[in-house]
Amino acid sequence: MTQGCAAPAQTAHLPATVDLANEAVIQGTVTREGNPVSSAYARLLDSTGEFTAEVVTGDEGVFRFFAADGDWTVRVLAAGGVSVDSSVTAKVGEVAALEVAI
For residues 78 and 33, what is the distance between their CA atoms, to the nearest angstrom? Predict the structure, then answer.
C-alpha cells in the first residue's frame, strides 16, 4: 500500500489503463553518455514558464506527464548543476516523445 502522495513509477511502457483517445502524454528518457539517468527531476512548465508538475526519473531514466493540449517545456535537473530545457507540444491521442541528453 502506498502512503502519502507520489507519482506512479516512471517506466518506459504506458500503463494498460491509459486511454490515449482521451489523454495527451509527454514522455521522455534522460541519458548521460548513452546511459539512463535515474533520480533526475523532470519539471513540466506551461507556455508562460509556470511550474505545473514534477516527477523523478525511474531506473530507465524515464519520465511521463499527462498534459493538456498545447506547448510545454520540460526542464530536467540532475546532479552536478545540470539543467536542460526541451520544448514539446502535447496533443490528445498522441505520445510526445523526448530524448534528453545531459
Answer: 14
Alpha-carbon distance values, 89 to 49, 53, 80 (Å): 14, 16, 28
Q: What is the pLDDT of residues 51-95, one digit of tens each?
A: 999 999 999 999 999 999 999 999 999 999 999 999 999 999 999
| Set of cell numbers at residue 6 | 507520489
Contact 40, 57 (CB under 8 A): yes
23-101: CATH topology: Immunoglobulin-like (2.60.40)
Domain boundaries along the sequence of the chain? 23-101
Quote the DSSP letter at residue 61.
-
